[in-house]
Amino acid sequence: MNKKVTILNDKHQRPPEFSAGSCTVTVYSLQPWWRVDLLAQYQISSVVITNRVDCCSQRIDGAEIRIGNSLENDGNNNPRCAVIKYTSDSSSYNFSCNMIGRYVNVIIPQNGTTLTLCEVEVYGVLGAISLQTDVALGKIATQSSSSYPMFLAPFAIDGNRDSNVYAMSCSYTDYYFKPWWRVDLLIEYQISSVVITNRGDCCPTRIDGAEIRIGNSLENNGNNNPRCAVITDIPAGSSSTFSCDMIGRYVNVVIPKNGAILTLCEVEIYGVPAVTKKINLRVKFHTSEDMIDSTTRHNVFQQFQMVSALKLYWTQEPELEHENKGFSDPSPVHYIQR
Ligand SMILES: [Ca+2]
Asked: What residues of the chain score a pLDDT lower than 50?
């Protein structure tokens, strides 16, 4: 059942007269906007907006509803649910969105106007599809060197894509031999994609040739893990998505050059916790095959593999066991496989 997750400003009142004291208004400005932070990701089904009716109602015409998880451009670059088309028939507008996000913005993409909203209702359910979750948020980041407090490794996973390095939201290494950055996700994840936001104020080509590596090893600081992608280029201030479909606890970005600077304004990692569980099986079976012969052993093992949903490995070679059944017929042959 859909649940209302937030309302603007007051006890769910929709008086559309500004004088009722239940509306917001921005100053006359360039592309005025309003945003609500739902504090968590929601699957948002619809948004209802109540317009001012006592005056200037047409100002709402062309306003856009944007929903997503990014605060880039104050959240106004998130995907668009709808554009409001002004009508005098009703003061409330209901839009179906079916989108995922933490932030809901209303923006008039016009220079020089005023945004007035008397009520914004957002309907949805908590806990949107986990594939859309940035699993790097709140994890542990480090890098090859950090000489400046305003360019630390965690700034690349602070949930902010601001691409100006002086906004204290980008990581930045020294000029260094093969500089690298790493996030420890603390557990293994099945990683579907990595989104990297490049620096926007300067030097966008520095990222060219950087590699994304994912795995569970810390050998060579994690930079020897399998490679997901080589970044050919990312335009200044832009975000690029790399599909990976890999499993790992560590995600590294490394520039394999002698002498380079690595700057990352955001690294988003999308995936779900990897479900891997190891179990030991002890299998006892009858066979007339000669299990001492390695080829036969391999063939029997393949038959086990074919009927199993598990990925099997031998931890111990089969052992021959004779079973006595009193004084009856000669005992059948048993093998024990662990
Ligand atoms: Ca950032």
From this structure: 1-11, 130-131, 326-332, 337-338
pTM here is 0.49
What's the CA-to-centroid distance between 247 and ligand 1, angstroms? 24
Calculate how far, in angstroms, residue 20's C-alpha sits from the geometric centre of ligand 1.
Answer: 40
CA angle 114, 115, 118 (to 5 degrees): 135
User: Ligand 1 centroid vs 239 CA: distance in angstroms?
Assistant: 11
User: What is the rounded distance in angstroms from the CA atom of residue 245 to the CA atom of residue 229?
Assistant: 11
Residue 160 alpha carbon to ligand 1 centre in Å: 4
- Contact, 55 vs 88, CB < 8 A? no
Rounded-to-integer distance, Cα 117 and Cα 35, Å: 11
Q: How far is the CA of 82 from the centre of ligand 1 (A)?
A: 28
Residue 185 host element (H or E): strand 180-197
**Distance of CA 243 from the midpoint of ligand 1 (Å):** 20
Q: Where in the chain is the domain with CATH 2.60.120.260?
A: 3-128, 140-273
Q: What are the tens digits of pLDDT across the range 204-242?
A: 999 999 999 999 999 999 999 999 999 999 989 988 889
Q: Please state which CATH number belongs to domain 140-273.
A: 2.60.120.260
- Cα gap 331→338, rounded to integer Å: 22
Fold (CATH) for 3-128: Jelly Rolls (2.60.120)
What DSSP designation does 55 have? Answer: S
